[in-house]
Amino acid sequence: MKRIFDFILALALLLALAPLFLVLMLLVRLKLGSPVFFRQPRPGLHGNVFSLIKFRSMTDQTNAAGELLPDSERLTPFGRWLRASSLDELPELLNILRGQMSFVGPRPLLVRYLERYTPEQARRHEVRPGITGWAQINGRNAISWDEKFRLDVWYVDHQSLWLDFKILLMTFTTVLRREGISPDGSDTMPEFRGTSQGDE
Predict the structure, then answer these.
(1) Could you tell me which residues come within 8 angstroms of residue 37 by beta carbon, excluding any fewer than 6 positions away?
(2) CB atoms closer than 10 angstroms to residue 112
(3) 39-85 pLDDT, tens digit each
(4) Residue 58 CA to chain centroid, in angstroms?
(5) Dist. CA 180–CA 83, nearest whole Å
(6) Non-local CB neighbours of 91 within 8 Å, separated by 6+ positions
């Protein structure tokens, strides 16, 4: 039932938002250059890796050695606006159509994090990753990694269509209020290094 709901809603939104999609493609191309889309391998259901699609929000600026500058230095005002409005996530509707993601579920993180999870934290991969989730409406990026994973696993144990509808409705409020976009004093979430034994 959830997969059918995801497919129908994703298709309807892609058709309805096609003009906005095209405008954003043009703006990203003009302000950030090519490519318009950011693609990155992410672990999905059961840890199977897929290619996540988002609108670019950062430049490709490098230092004298040819290495990419830190994320905070490559994130432009336009990119910050894209992230704050969550419009950079719009292409993930394509991931939903392909069955790689759902509207609601734990956010798909970096592949290298897989080996850093505790067995309990790894349970977040028992469901498809989502555009939004229980952690996103309960702090988003303003909470710690451990708290995020605790909320992700809570969702796995309590998932239902009713809970998904509640999360979707609360997501609109969170986005409109621009709550929890980034941790205090940083533009991006720090890398997850693993949970220490004493914190498990």
Answers:
(1) 53, 54, 55, 56, 91
(2) 11
(3) 999 999 999 999 999 999 988 877 777 777 777 778 888 988 998 88
(4) 15
(5) 11
(6) 21, 37, 53, 54, 55
